[in-house]
Amino acid sequence: MSYLRPSFVLGCIFAVTVSAEDARPDELLLAIAHLSEERSYTWKSNTVSSGGMFVMPVAGQTELNGFTVVRATIQRGTSTAVARGGRAVYETTDGWLTAEQVRRLRLVVASPSVATPAEQLWQLVEGCVGPRVAGNKITATLTPDAISDRLQLPRSRPGHDTRPTLRDPAGSITVWLDHGRVTKFEVELSGEIQADPFPHRFNLATTVEISAVGSTRVDVPREAIAALDALANN
Fold first, then answer.
1. What parts of the chain have a pLDDT lower than 70?
2. Cα dist. 137→77, 117, 185 in Å?
3. What confidence score (pLDDT) does residue 152 get?
4. What CATH class does 6-233 carry?
5. Whole-number Å distance between alpha carbons of 55 and 47
6. Which of 54, 90, 160, 217 is the most buried (most CB within 10 A)?
């Protein structure tokens, strides 16, 4: 997925300001742009679920125009993914494989997302309405499509009965800023997933904290580098 940059987003998102508390939406977009351009940073992500959905604590490192390494804590230990230049490989018992290779071999792998916080924020702000400023944080409401995208549900199409579908979705994003830089964001989602045989209620709160900006040294497994090099040469 490609993520839009301020030159386009500033003209489209938050285009209508209706009150004083909706001021400075561009501050958030510029802060995300700064994060996208940082030399490197580390993040930790933790999700609290009251609906029984499977979630994994995640720790990640990323560098500009280089590697992104994401490690998720699972019951059996750690699941690791490494990305570079739009390609990603996942650690498996059969070595470092792409998502397509994992599916083809029918392996059971807990595959963490390789989307960095900056990439996640670009996607989220595309589906935000009504930004509100309170001190050092900006809060906005997420549209139903943005919630579906965050949950990785297929979007419904006119004339098609696409399952699963989302009922009564509600969501918000809150971003904390420090001198124009993103330090943390929280995404809250709730609703009901309509899927056979039973619907499933969910309530999720994900907190992402960013640290070591500019000083992170990304620790990349050598085998993952070799796998990505092989993909680039094919």
1. 1-25, 51-54, 154-163, 196-197
2. 35, 16, 9
3. 81
4. mainly beta
5. 6
6. 90
pTM of the model: 0.84
Rounded to 5 degrees, what angle do the CA atoms 14, 15, 18 make?
80
The C-alpha angle 112, 117, 119, rounded to 5 degrees, equals: 95
Contact (Cβ atoms closer than 8 angstroms) between residue 67 and residue 81: no
Helix (H) or strand (E) holding 167: strand 165-178
In which order are the strands placed within the sheet that holds 40-49? 95-97, 87-92, 77-84, 67-74, 58-63, 40-49, 200-211, 181-194, 165-178, 137-142, 128-134
Write down the pLDDT at residue 8: 36
- Tokens coding 80: 């690791």
Question: In 3D, which of 27, 45, 47, 25 has the Cα closest to residue 35?
Answer: 27
CB 42 within 8 A of CB 67: no
Closest CA to 84 of 68, 97, 107, 70: 68
